[in-house]
Every structure is written in C-alpha cells, then in structure tokens.
Design goal:
CATH architecture: 2-Layer Sandwich
Number of domains: 1
Largest sheet: 5 strands, antiparallel
CATH superfamily: PAS domain
Strand content: 35-45%
Number of strands: 5
Distance between the termini: 29 Å
CATH class: Alpha Beta
Order of helices and strands: EEHHHEEE
Number of helices: 3
Length: about 110
C-alpha cells in the first residue's frame, strides 16, 4: 500500500499557547512510533520535548516564520524518548482547524542517524 503522506514519514499538529510555546495536540501513529512515545505520553507536551538542545536554539526563529502564515521548510534534529536523535526535514504551516489556528507539520527523516 502506498504511503498516503507521499515522501513524509509523519504528521504533528501543534497549538500555540498564550505564553508563546508550541504544544503537541495530535500526532499520527508513525510519529509516535518514530519518537518512541505512547499517545498519552506525547499529546499536550511542548514540542521542545522532541528537540535537542541545539535544535531548541533555532526553534524561536522557525516558530516566528511559521506564525507569519507562510509555509516554512527547515531541517532540525529530533529526540526520541530513549535519548537517541535523528535528523528531520519539516514543512510547517498555520492552518485553521476546528475553529482555531494550529500548526500542521509534515516531517520526514533525513538520511544519516545522528
């Protein structure tokens, strides 16, 4: 069966809180598997839970670009529950969903384990 996401490995939905942090509001099964979390462990957590310390340094800049309303594409490094890391390409955009704005990310693992 063909991957309905095309070249992407998984989807994350994020919501912006009042304090400016991005929280995970939903994740497809492949995102949960890739990061090593059960759904109840990941939903509601800040996106920073999945970012390495280095990736957190550019998260503010990427977040500001996403909030501009334009589609944004960038590379970053994600952190699994077990502490291992992997490189991802992120395509993100603010979209209306259920009467609110959320950040939809389509992500794919890049070649080369960190």
């Amino acid at each position: 069966m063909a991957n309905p996401l095309g070249d992407y490995d998984y989807i994350l939905l994020l919501e912006l809180s009042i304090d400016g942090h991005h929280f995970i509001t939903d994740a497809c099964n492949s995102a949960l598997e890739k990061h090593g979390y059960a759904r109840e462990e990941l939903i509601g957590q800040p996106i920073s839970k999945l970012l390495t310390d280095e990736a957190k340094k550019s998260a503010g800049k990427n977040g500001a670009l996403i909030k501009s309303g334009k589609p944004v594409r960038f590379e970053t490094t994600h952190l699994r529950k077990d502490g291992t890391t992997f490189n991802v390409e992120v395509n993100a955009k603010m979209v209306p969903m259920g009467g609110r704005l959320v950040i939809l990310t389509l992500e794919r693992e890049m070649a080369g384990e960190v």
